[in-house]
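User: Structure tokens for both sequences below?

Assistant:
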Amino acid sequence: MSLPRKRSFLLRFIYTLALSLFAGTSAFADSVASYPEGWEEWPVVKESMTLPADTVLPPDTSLFIQEAVRSYAWINDGLGSPLTIRVNPEKLEQYKTHGPYTDGPTVVAVSEVQGIIWVTEHFSGLPMYGSYNRKGEDISSMHPTLEASFCQRCHDTYKDICINGTCAEPVLSPYE
């Protein structure tokens, strides 16, 4: 990451953190992770999907999968969507061991039908999150589950699955 980009990222992070201290969690409505130009060329490491709203999960489904299905059941008007996971080629080896990660964009999850791009970026070893459309526009205010604070809470809650901010349990695993 170039020095001006690091400085811009750091200022954006500090600004968001400061706002959250003074204005509550609504300050996290904007994405903290930046939109990674060229993500479309990153290698695909996993394919999954956001499941339809009427999905009945097996009784032994992990709490992580249950929450993921419940949280994103609204996508594509409740019909679900293929989900493609792409990793920054500079971080493929780090991804294989779930970090630690160097600074910069790390991974994107793309809802193929809805066009939502969830971004995980790392800075000083910490994961940051953002939600964008295919044009690179921040859409985190479109739905509460797209806000960076929602992503942060979920990834922190399931640290056994979301190691260093990247999650390892595909949503389709209960069906395999």
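Moving on to the next sequence.
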Amino acid sequence: MTEQSGADDATDLTHTTDDGDVQMVDVGDKPDSERRAVAAGQIHLAPSTIEAIRADEVGKGDVLSTARVGAIQAVKHTWETIPMCHQIPITNVDTAFDLREDRIDLEVAVETTGKTGCEMEALEGVTTGLNVVWDMVKAVEKDEDGQYPATRIENVRVLEKEKRTR
């Protein structure tokens, strides 16, 4: 283990048993806390694609509205796709899209009241929201060979997380 991991040895890992088997962390004895996490990422697109999104001229429909729904759905279903995540009560999801000249930035803020954090939910919201954008614009992003040489999702990260004990 590296010093950055926060664990001195394998016995400090909370997602493994003493025998090294994967397990879900028991959070049953933890107090409920108000928690919030914000994640962000970006998708790089051709400037013409950004303009088509702004003008609502993408053949598949309203790109950002569809991506917003996808992001929220992903937040609500994170426990089904990340094996060791707990199902948590989501109390709020906010999405914010920022259209730039050659990219779209997305921030997803998730709030919950419970025994564990919601950063994975925020990350799932960002990655799915950006994947939905890609899906909605792929027809106009393809080059003459049917490839996506400049389209990319990057810089996905947790911007902040907070916990307020009741």
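User: Anything stand out in the second?

Assistant: The beta strands are 33-44, 90-99, 103-114, 152-165.
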